[in-house]
Amino acid sequence: MRKIYITGSIVCIFLIAVITSSFIYMDKKSSRPAFSNGHIANLNTRGSSLESKTYQTSATLGAIGDVLIHDAVYKDAYNHGTYDFDKMFKPVMPYLKNPDLLVANQESMIGGKQIGLSSYPSFNSPYEVGDTLKEAGVDMVTIANNHSMDHGEKALLSAISYYNKLKLPYTGAYKDLEDSDTLRILTRNGISFAFLAYTYGLNGNVLPEDKPYMVNMFNINTVIQDIKNAEKYADVVVVSTHWGNEYERLPSPEQKEWAHMMAGAGADVIIGHHPHVLQPIQWIKTNGKQALVIYSLGNFLSGQIRDYKDIGGILIVKVTKKVSNKTKQVAIDSFSFIPTYVTSEDRENFRVLPLAQADKMGLVKKPESYTETMAHMSQWAK
């Protein structure tokens, strides 16, 4: 049986119990709602009959791309024995705090300086990156990528320990089997979001033979089963995939095929990472609904420059949930996209700026303009 634990506050609106800020832990051995902090959680499956009530609610989900901390970046952040990445995020903080939920792809493990900081090709980043993500309003961190095992189990477990210290949820890599068997669900405005994350590989590194659960590896059949399971318990299924070809501005045929398969299985939002450049946004219509895929969100913060590698973005998706006549409908209504630009001066003073602002300031070299970027991202989103 599967036990479902809910932590957080419960607020009654029109006699409807709505979890305003929660994290659901699902032990695959139980399916029975359990007591948690004195509350009883009754979790309806998606599309199931509900009590007689009618209401409509909406929530926004934001996403940012690769946070990949090269040595130039963490050296710039160094400040009297600690590291300050807040200043790098500061110009876009208002945009990051706008969505009801925000997910970030932390590509380099924040194993901490005690392990030894390092950069390409084997990354290990300061703990303080996590502090900045928390300060920026990030609610979920995806950590399944080709650098997850750069410094082995030690760095991964150290990073996870720090996320737990920050009370910052993560997904895609895990400390133990129980952690791996826990489906991450966050709820905002009465809409529940499940988060899944996978990577195509580990740069030749291997998982411990007795711990294959440590990082979610991308296998389309496994992903489809996970999506089908997640949609039983959440209104919206968000899948982050580390896939594709580096520095390619268009997705591969495999990315397109897998995106359609995931949408067909029930994924609502698919967020791609790994190419380190932006790839277009596309609506996928299947099974009477539409899903949204961004094939790559590019670099949000990194030490990579030129050839579109310094451009990323903030994707914001609006979700609406309607409950009427004992049924519910959940739809991805619309999206907006704010392109961003990483600027620096002689590999110092790294900042993430809105691309439109950077363009007006003359910091952007053609063809990396705001106009070209928006045209590129929207070409399939008709």
From TrEMBL:
<dbReference type="InterPro" id="IPR052169">
    <property type="entry name" value="CW_Biosynth-Accessory"/>
</dbReference>
<dbReference type="InterPro" id="IPR029052">
    <property type="entry name" value="Metallo-depent_PP-like"/>
</dbReference>
<protein>
    <submittedName>
        <fullName>Capsular biosynthesis protein</fullName>
    </submittedName>
</protein>
<keyword id="KW-0812">Transmembrane</keyword>
<keyword id="KW-1133">Transmembrane helix</keyword>
<comment type="similarity">
    <text>Belongs to the CapA family.</text>
</comment>
<feature type="transmembrane region" description="Helical">
    <location>
        <begin position="6"/>
        <end position="26"/>
    </location>
</feature>
<dbReference type="InterPro" id="IPR019079">
    <property type="entry name" value="Capsule_synth_CapA"/>
</dbReference>
<dbReference type="Pfam" id="PF09587">
    <property type="entry name" value="PGA_cap"/>
</dbReference>
<keyword id="KW-0472">Membrane</keyword>
<feature type="domain" description="Capsule synthesis protein CapA">
    <location>
        <begin position="60"/>
        <end position="304"/>
    </location>
</feature>
